[in-house]
Amino acid sequence: MSAAIIDGKALASQIKADLQERIAHLKSKGIVPALTVILVGDDPASAVYVNSKHNTFVQLGLKSEVIRMPADTSQETLLNKIRELNQDKNLHGILVQLPLPKHIDTNTVIDTIDPNKDVDGFHVSNAGALMTGNPRFIPCTPYGVMKMLESQHITIRGAEAVVVGASNIVGKPMALLLQKEGATVTICNSKTKDLAAHTRRADILVVATGRPEMVTGDMIKPGAVVIDVGINRGADGKLKGDVEFASASQVAGAITPVPGGVGPMTIVMLLVNTIESAERLL
Q1: Is 87 designated active site?
Q2: Does domain 139-263 sit in CATH 3.80.10.10?
Q3: What is the pLDDT of residues 63-109, one digit of tens each?
Q4: Which stretches within 132-241 are classed as H helix?
Q5: pTM over the 0.90 mark
Q6: Fewest beta carbons within 10 Å, which of 38, 149, 158, 276?
Q7: Which residue among 16, 81, 97, 118 is the active-site one?
Q8: How many CA atoms lie within 13 A of 266 on its CB side?
Q9: Residue 231 marked as a ligand binder
């Protein structure tokens, strides 16, 4: 069999079109959704992500600012900038691009962001709200994955879901969202013993480990929905996911490609979160 391709780029475009009415309503009230992204250092991948986010906002007529800081910026300088942005009443979203240089504590930085402007959904109060089933901001990548499953009319309630990867950014919130919708969820990681025994049970398989092509077709249940969150650049310069697409697409019922799958959805859900933040002012 050959899997149906879940086109994240097309779905992201549809969501952006659907947001136009909400944006127009906000503007009629004198509110223009505004995001500020802080980029510390010169990581090439981070720069690409930040530019994509910025361009998406600008194309829709929203406010977007990128603050670039050198890699040797002190932690206190960064925290002071965040505190300054917290006080800006015309700013609805603050995002600090990860990863940060090693001398800066990521948790301290995230916890300094005003939870009401934490459109990445990483602040401990937003993580806690998600855990109790009443999220204020849902982390953008898991949020985008849920929208992709919804677009394919995937039945989540009662499904066996396996999430490979247990990060605070993707794996843990992903598991919580699937559980909230009634799935039976197993969380694995790259060190899980006999990983294939778990992945072969999955009706819905989400892979987010940052390890290129670690999940192959023989590790997938026939007909499963496979969501590949990974994005890795191979020695040949081509982008690859955490799932070996060639073999997996012959077994899965539906699968996301890399690129063009989860990536565009992550950016558009950041847009959704920022608009929701602005709407709360009404």
Answers
A1: no
A2: no
A3: 999 999 999 999 999 999 999 999 999 999 999 999 999 999 999 99
A4: 140-151, 171-180, 195-199
A5: yes
A6: 158
A7: 97
A8: 20
A9: yes
Candidates 16, 81, 118, 120; catalytic one: 120
CATH topology of 30-117 equal to that of 139-263?
Answer: yes
Q: Where are the domains of the chain?
A: 30-117, 139-263
Portion of the chain with pLDDT greater than 70, in percent: 100
224 is in an annotated binding site: no
Q: What is the pLDDT of residues 56-71, one digit of tens each?
A: 999 999 999 999 999 9
Is residue 118 flagged as an active site residue? Answer: no
So what CATH class is 30-117? alpha beta
Short-list 234, 233, 202, 228, CA closest to 215? 228
Q: Known catalytic residue: 120?
A: yes
The answer to whether 151 is a known ligand-binding residue is no
Q: Which of 16, 53, 81, 240 is catalytic?
A: 53
Residues 6+ apart with CB under 8 A from 199: 162, 164, 188, 205, 215, 219, 220, 221
Span 268-282, mean pLDDT? 95
Strands (E), the chain: 4-5, 34-40, 63-69, 93-96, 160-164, 184-188, 204-207, 225-228, 232-233, 239-240, 254-255
pLDDT at 45: 82
**Residue corresponding to tokens 């847009």:** 271
The per-residue pLDDT for 195 is 97
Secondary structure (3-state) at 238: coil
